[in-house]
Amino acid sequence: MSAPWTATVLTIFPEMFPGPLGFSLAGKALANGVWKLDAVDLRDYATDRHRTVDDAPFGGGAGMVMRPDVIARAVDDRTARGAPGPRVYLTPRGERLTQARVREWAEGAGVLLLCGRYEGVDQRVIEARDFLEVSIGDFVLSGGELAAMAVIDACVRLLPGVVGDAASLEEESFSGGLLEYPHYTRPQVWEGRPVPEVLLSGHHAEIRAWRRRQALEITRRRRPDLLNTVS
Ligand code: 9WO
After folding, report:
1. Contact, 26 vs 153, CB < 8 A?
2. Spacing, Cα 199 to ligand 1 middle (Å)
3. Taking a C-beta distance cutoff of 8 angstroms, is the pair 95, 126 a contact?
C-alpha cells in the first residue's frame, strides 16, 4: 500500500501536534490512516550537547535567528526518508495562502512545513532548500505552529473520504468564489428574530436564488476584491 498524504512538521515544539488536528474530521481521518503526521523536533538535528537551534543575528538587533545548518539537516534527513514536498515556511512575510493553493497541495503527496520561532529563520536555508514562504493572514503569531495547523486542516478536509463528497461538490460549484450565504436553524423565532420567510416556503428554486443573492451581496460589501474577475 502506498503512503498516505503526509504532513511533515519541523518545529521545536513537536508536542503541540496533533493538538487540535486530533479532533473532529481531521482527527478521525488521522486515526483511519487517511493522512499521516510526522512532527519532527528540530533539536534532534542540533550537534551540541545543549541542542541549540538558534543564534544571534548578524548585523545586531534583538532576538535570535534559527540556524540554517540545523534546519537543513532536518530537511535533508526527512526528505531522504520519503517526506514529500512542497516545502513551506510559514511566515507573515509570505505570499498569502489561497484555497486554490490548498487544493493543489491536497492533490499532491503531502507538505513539509517549517515552523519558525524567535525572530525567524536564516534566509539562506529558505533559498537553498527551495521553501515557499507562505502567510495565512496579516498578523504575527509567536511561531509558525498554529499557521501550520491551519494549513494541514485546510488540506486534510479535501482528501478523499474526509468530508462527504456531496458537501465538497456543493462548495465548489454553488458558492464557488463567493462568501457563504447566512445559515438558520431552529427555533423558528429566537429572541423575537424570525428566520427569513423564504427558507420556510419549501420553494427550492426560490431558496437557491435567495441564497445566491445573499452570497453576492455579502461578498460585494465585505470582499469586493473577490468579484474583481472578468467573466
Ligand atoms: C518577529 C518580530 C519581532 C520584531 C519585529 C518584527 C518581527 N517579526 C517577527 C516574526 O515574523 N516572527 C516570526 C514568528 C518568525 C517566524 C515564525 N513566527 C510567525 C509565523 N509568526 N507569525 C507567523 C505567521 C505565519 C503564517 N501566517 C501568519 C503568521
Report:
1. yes
2. 44
3. no
Q: Is the CB of 116 under 6 A from ligand 1?
A: yes
pLDDT tens-digit map of 77-101: 999 999 999 999 999 999 999 999 9
Q: In the predicted model, is pLDDT for residue 23 greater than 70?
A: yes
- The CATH number corresponding to 172-229 among 3.40.50.150, 3.30.365.10, 1.10.1270.20, 3.40.462.10 equals 1.10.1270.20
**Beta carbon of 62 within 6 Å of any ligand 1 atom:** no
Give SS3 for 36: strand
pLDDT tens sequence across 114-125? 999 999 999 999
**pTM of whole model > 0.90?**
yes
Strand partners, 41: 11
Instruction: Report which protein residue has its CA nearest ligand 1's atom 29.
Output: 92
